[in-house]
Here is the input.
Amino acid sequence: MDSSIVTIIVALVLVFIAWKFLKGIVKTVALVAILALAAFVVFGGGLG
Here is the structure.
């Protein structure tokens, strides 16, 4: 459970950074990739 919370916090920070510094389609692709990875880690059982 703790790793899920950490993953969500890291994903939110990465989304914030992408939102502030990226533009256009690059931003969209980055946001989709970040959220997809976070969902995989939280719901798919993690990376390890």
About this structure: Residues 2-43 form one domain. The chain has one domain: 2-43. The longest helix spans residues 2-21. The chain has a mean pLDDT of 87.
